[in-house]
Amino acid sequence: VSPASVDLFSASFWLAAAVAVLLLTPLTRVFPRQLGFALVNVGFLLALIKLRTLGAIVGVVLLHALLRACADPKRGSLVLRVVIAGGVAVFCFHKLPLPAASAKPVALLESMLGAIGFSYVLLRMVDVARTVYAGRQPPPGLVGLFNYLMPFHMLAAGPIQAYDDFVAGLAAPAPAPSAVNVLSGVERVAFGMFKKFVVAYSIERLFLTAFMADGWYFVLEMHLYLLWFYIDFSAYSDVAVGLGQLMGVRTPENFNRPYLARNMIEFWERWHITLGDWIRRHLYVPIQLAWVRRTGGRYQLGISLVSVAAAFTISGAWHGLTLPFLIWGVMHGVGVMIATLYRHVLTRRLGKKGVKAYLERPWIRVVATFVTLEWVAASLVVVGWHWEFRR
Amino acid sequence: MTDRSPGSMPAAGGEAIPTAASEGRAKGDAVRGAASPPGAGLPAWQWALRLLWVAIEIILVCWFAQKGLMFVYQGF
Questions:
Q1: What is the dihedral of CA A263, A267, A268, A272, to 10 degrees?
Q2: Which of A138, A163, A221, A287 satisfies CB 3.0 to 4.6 Å to A131 for a cystine?
C-alpha cells in the first residue's frame, strides 16, 4: 500500500483548490454551501487515497452517531469517554510503527489515517465531542461534521479550528467575492508557497545538517533550524488561510510573530495558536479543575504548575510518540511553569502595576525575548537531532 | 441547552482561578478577528505591483522545484 499524504505540490491539491474556489460561490446559489464544500473535500480525498476514502466516511458516520448520544444527559458522559478513548487508541495505532508483515487491511487503514492527518482530526474530534457534551452546540449534521473534521486545505498541518468557531462561520453570511479579497487571498497563498519551497527549502538544503556538525556551526545551525522551522510550518498556515479567504471558508490564523514572545506563555499565544488554545481548553483547564475539586481550592499555584506540566507532556506525546518529542513537550511545560512562577513572584513583590512597568523596560524585553528564543531553539534541537545517524 | 463545559465552572471558593495560561485568550481572539484584507480602493499601480510580486513568487517556486537549488549549489 503506497503511503499518501497531503502534498502542497501535488496536482490533486491544487485541482481541489481550483474547483473549490471556482465553484463554491456559484454553488451557493444551487446547493447549500456546506454540501458544495463537502463535495470538494470528498473529491480531494478520492483523488488522494481513492477508495480508502470510504474508510474516512465510515469513521465520520460512526462519530456522527456517537455525537448524537453525547448530547444525551444520561449517556453523554460515558459516550464522551468512549469517543476520546477510541480516538486515542486509533491515534496510538497511527503513531506507533507497524510490524513489517502487517495484514493488508491494517496497512490500508494506516495509509488512510496518514492521508487525512489523523493527529489533527483527533483534536477536532475531541473538540466537537466536548462542545456537544457541554451543551454549547447541538450535535452536527453529517455533512457539517465531515467538513469540520476533514477540510482539505487544513489537512496537511492545521490550523485546528475550534468547533464553536466553525459553527460561527456557518452562521455568518457567505462573503461576497471582491477583487481585493481575491488579491489578498492569492497573495497569501503565493507567499506561503514562496516561504516553503524557496526560502525554507534553501535554508534546509544549504545549511541544515541534522546537527551533525560540532562547534560554532552547531550554534549557527541551532538558530537556522529555528528560522527554518517557523518559515516551513507557518507556510502551511499561510496557504490554508489564503485558500480559506478565496473560498469564503473561515480559517483561523495560527501564527503571530512567535519569536518576539517574552516568555513561554506568550510564545504559546503566538506559535501554533490554535493548538495552544486547544491545549488550554481540553488539557490544562480540565486537569486544573479536577485537582481544584480534589483539594478544595487550596494550593492554587501548585495545581496550576502541575496542570501545565501534564498538559505539555501530553502535547509532546501528540507531536510524536517518541522520546525526543516527550522531552520537547516537557521542556515547553517547564518553560511555561517557570514563566508562571516568575510572574507570581514578581506580582507578590511589585504588585500588578509594578510588574507591568517592569515588563515594559526595554532591556527586560530584550533579555526576556532572547532567553525565550534560546529555550525554544534548544527544544527544537532535541527533535531536529538526527538520532539514527548519531547512534 | 445547559452549559456543562468545565471552562464555565468557577473554581472552588466561587472565584475563577486567574492563570497566566488563560490570559492569552483575548490576544489570540484578536489575532483571529483581524482578518479583513487591506487595500480597498487601491490605485492601479499598487495592484500591478502586488500582482507582479505574486507572479515572481510563483515563478521562483516553480523554478526551485525544477532546478533552482542546483544552480545555487554550483554558484558556491
A1: -170
A2: A163
Give B23-67 pLDDT, tens digit per residue. Answer: 444 444 444 444 445 555 778 888 889 999 999 998 888 888 776
- In A320-390, alpha helices (H): 323-360, 362-384, 387-390
Gap between the Cα atoms of A61 and B36, Å rounded: 35
Length of chain B, please? Answer: 76
And the C-alpha cell for A363?
Answer: 532591556
What are the residues whose beta carbons fall under 8 Å from the beta carbon of A65, sequence distance 6 or more?
Answer: none
**ω before A140 within 30° of 0 (cis)?**
no
Residues of chain A with pLDDT under 70: 1-10, 25-30, 100-102, 174-175, 386-391
Please report the ipTM that was assigned to this predicted complex.
0.73
Quick check: A291 and A306 in contact, CB under 8 A? Answer: yes
Closest CA to A128 of A147, A153, A155, A156: A147
Q: Which amino acid is at A236?
A: Y
Q: What is the pLDDT of residue B73?
A: 52
The rounded Cα A247 to chain-centroid distance in angstroms is 21
A151 backbone φψ class: left, alpha, beta (φ>0; ψ -120 to 50): beta
Confirm if B28 and A275 have CB atoms less than 8 A apart: no
A276 and chain B in contact, CB less than 8 A: yes
Name every chain A residue with its beta carbon within 8 A of the beta carbon of B11: 289, 292, 297, 300
Backbone angles phi, psi at A271, to 5 degrees: -105, 130
Residues from chain A that touch B68, judged by Cβ atoms under 8 A, are 198
Are B30 and A288 a contacting pair, CB within 8 Å?
no
B28:A194 CB<8 A: no
Q: What is the pLDDT of residue B10?
A: 34
CB A38, CB A260: distance < 8 Å: no
Contact list, B31 vs chain A (CB under 8 Å): 253, 256, 273
